Amino acid sequence: MEKFNIAIDGPAGAGKSTIARLVAKELDFIYVDTGAMYRAVTWKVLQEGLRPDQTEAMIALAGGMEIRLVPGENGQLVYVDGEDVTGVIRTPDVTGNVSRVSSIAEIRAVLTAKQQELAKSKGVVMDGRDIGSHVLPDAEVKIFLTASVRVRAERRYREMKEAQPDVDITLERLERDIAERDRMDQQREASPLVRADDAVLMDTTDMPIPQVVEAILELCKTQV
Ligand code: C5P
Fold first, then answer.
1. pLDDT tens per residue, range 88-146
2. Which ipTM was obtained for this model?
3. What pTM value is reported for the model?
4. CA 141, CA 107: separation in Å to the nearest integer?
5. Which helix (H) or strand (E) holds 151?
6. What PANTHER family does the annotation carry (predicted)?
7. How many Å lie between the centroid of ligand 1 and the Cα of residue 129?
């Protein structure tokens, strides 16, 4: 099969990473989770103890760090300057700060260049917020995944409880946090979360994951 690129965008908890990973596996493509890259920068910013107003230092940090995404047994592993940060980039502290850090245009430029480099030889399924609209505007297949805030919060809640049964979080709190992250991602000036004009909209509120994967694979058939 000729190689092509697939861009999957959408708000938090729409199922992007699970779906993108499954599609990549089916096609034997490389999966790139761009949210993990923004999380990696945010983790480093917090590690360094930078204050929200230290934008220049954050930009320098993002420019100087090496982020590597490596396929692992149970999903993608993320390394920052050789250190495995796969788990620590998912903490509430990172999640609570990532939209602020990713609103900085210069940090987006650094990561966008890395993402474009990863997709250069095609055969990539990339998920994020601005992939179809900004990072890979020429991607052959573009999907915009969405679902109601309630359903997205319920999915995240189940995932979190499975990973850590005693986690101190309520569904209502998660729903509020997700809605706030959506708002910041949609309203930022630099490449906001938006559906590209040519992206196929899929609402996964009542759609099981295998059905969404099937629908995307069907769309990919037009590329063969
Ligand atoms: O996908 P995930 O929820 O891990 O993304 C975390 C955050 O990273 C998003 O809420 C958004 O602020 C930022 N992000 C972004 N552009 C992308 C991917 C993620 O701004 N392409």
1. 999 989 999 999 999 999 999 999 999 999 999 999 999 999 999 999 999 999 999 99
2. 0.98
3. 0.94
4. 26
5. helix 149-163
6. CYTIDYLATE KINASE (PTHR21299:SF2), CYTIDYLATE KINASE/PANTOATE-BETA-ALANINE LIGASE (PTHR21299)
7. 6
